[in-house]
Amino acid sequence: MKWNSRIRCALVCLAFTALFSAFSFRLVYLQMIKHDEYAGLAAEKHVYKQAIYAERGSILDANNEVLAHNTPVETVVADATHLNNRESLIPLLRDALEIPAGELSEKLEGDRRYIVLKREVPESVAVALKERLRTQNLRGIYFERDSTRIYPNGSMLCHVIGFTDFEHRGIQGVESSMEEYLHGQDGYRYIEHNRAGQEIVIYRGQERTPRNGYQVHLTIDLNLQNIVENEIDAAMREYTPQKATIILMRPQTGEILAMANRPHFDLNQRSEAKPEQMKNRAIIDMMEPGSTFKIVCAAAALNEHKVRPDTTIFCENGLWNFGGRPLHDHKAYADLSVRDILVKSSNIGAAKLAISVGDQKFYEYIRRFGFGERTGIELPGEIGGVIRPPQSWSKISITRIPMGHEVGVTPLQMTSAMATIANGGKLVTPRIVRSITTEDGKTVSTFSPVVLRQVISPETAAQIGNALRGVVSDRGTAAAAAVPGFTISGKTGTAQKVDPKGGYERGKYVVSFSGYLPSEHPEFVGLVVLDDAHTTKPELNYGGLVAGPIFSRIAEKAARYLDLEPHEEVGKPSVAGRVALTNASRR
Amino acid sequence: MHAPRRKAFNSVNAASLARWIVITAFLALTGLIYVYLSLQLYHLGDRKKTLENELTSLRAQNDVASVQIAALTSRSAMQRRLKEGYLKMIPVSEHNIVRLSAPSGPRGEDAVQPVANKRAGR
């Protein structure tokens, strides 16, 4: 019996020992071996990573005028499980958020915990709503801080600035191309909540402050942009073209001073814009440039020393059969100097210049002028155009390409080519971003001019420039582009519109004028392109008569704004002779 | 014969008692200070949160004001006001313009007016 009781005692002790040993082992296992895992799981239940959103950077013009900015808004969300009085809540929300009551009832049905009621609610509306919810003791409605993009100038410069989506990612224009600078870096903070969902500040954990987006300064001058926008609007009213593009560029640096396209849209009401209105036609539209392209063949022939400016070329009296196909001039010319080929815009003369250079060499010059490749401007979606290699040219291509047929170029490429002439033969990459700074003005990055190559010698560029001065004279095709007091070099273009089904559309033309001012020390290069302009008489639909005067008005106002000193010895070109001359035929 | 009767008292060790009182008081004070400081921390945390909210709200108001300024002083707004007649522009007369370089020569009777393209103008 005594033995039995001892055994029983021992057994009980042993059992307790085993039990507490097991507990001890379990405790050690949980507290030491599995500590990190369970501590992590516990933290997940009450520790939250709160995102602190960075503010998107602003976009400014060359004079620090704001083009794109942020404004604080709030997203109103509901947690259906927290709603305490739906009947009172719905009329309140209906009035404040201007959402139909039916839609609200539908949204607040069930027990979903995250229901977005309305985005981009202005700060003032949100503050008033919060106050009314508080006074009526209504629960379950929460406000998330957000911001939206505001474009103070509405539709002005819309294709260049672009816009963002609702997640604040740039999807067009500079908003897209400069996304990495504008976006900034979101911060975060580890926080703990109490039972009421309020943050317990003393348990705030690791924190990283957000870095707001950088400010992007464009090369665009809003004063010049305004001049261009007014003129393009006037042109749209007067000629009702299908599309229009105007570009102003500083040739020495490649800075784009102004860029406007039509049709366009209001950046603050972008959801209503049609895709056609959103295209930046200066960089994504391909056109046959027409006679403005003659500067390329003339430059090639002069640079290769095949001809001199005063070399005369027989222009076949207006009709030349080459490769079994006739090539016409708008007027019968016999002998024309190389200079006059540009001044009179002779197709036959230009074709003969290209032939003197040869297929391969001519193609090389086209490419050297930057055609057939993207210019590299800081805008998304740019196309390179279409320049076929000589292997795929037809027999007559060498006579058609010099007059701007059989090639597809963008308006920006054409501007850049003209800038090459203005810039002593140097091809400079066009650019639209001048610098990137922090909010407090500290420079992060500066975009310097990039000279891609010396396309032609400075002498050749000067010779072409001199010839182009003649274009904007009583003898030339663009007398209406003149600005009294200044010498202008430029070239007109009138190309029949390419039919997407093949061939050309009858009676529809793309008229253009590209030039620079002043000829001696160019301050800016301009291009005006109107696609399918409507004139009172079809015979008035020429680059010199439609695009030329638009350029003149822009150049005059721009010169005044830039305070360029006029050379008063330059006389006014006569108007009478000009109209008769330009009406003769297409050039 | 008998020893004088003395009342039996439990002896109190005053020094020890004092020591315990001090220790207890110290512990109590420490506890109170701990609780007080903890409450202060919570209170300061709440103050911090309130100030952060106020700061955020002020920043938001500042941003709203900046946007309004940008909108009201934008080129489009100015042009609208110009059209409405709210603003008026007076051209600067020639004699008020100071040029760095003087005009090249005397202007003749039929000389060209600098940068005034009346012909091409609308």
List keywords for this structure.
heterodimer, A: 587 residues, alpha+beta, Penicillin-binding protein 2a (Domain 2), Beta-lactamase, seven-stranded mixed β-sheet, five-stranded antiparallel β-sheet, 19 helices, disordered C terminus, B: 122 residues, mainly alpha, 2 helices, rod-shaped
Summarize the helices and strands and which ones pair or pack.
The complex is a heterodimer of chains A (587) and B (122).
Chain A: H1 2-33, H2 35-46, E1 47-52, E2 59-60, E3 66-78, H3 86-97, H4 101-108, E4 115-122, H5 123-135, E5 141-150, H6 158-161, H7 173-177, H8 179-182, E6 187-192, E7 207-208, E8 215-218, H9 222-239, E9 243-250, E10 255-262, H10 281-284, H11 294-303, E11 312-314, E12 319-322, E13 325-328, E14 335-337, H12 338-344, H13 347-357, H14 359-368, H15 397-400, H16 411-422, E15 426-428, E16 433-437, E17 443-446, E18 451-454, H17 458-471, E19 489-498, E20 504-517, E21 524-531, H18 543-561, H19 576-582
Parallel strand pairs in A: 2-8
Antiparallel strand pairs in A: 1-6, 2-3, 3-4, 3-5, 6-7, 8-16, 9-10, 9-21, 11-14, 12-13, 15-18, 16-17, 19-20, 20-21
Helix pairs in contact in A: 3-4, 3-5, 9-18, 11-13, 11-14, 11-17, 12-17
Chain B: H1 14-72, H2 75-84
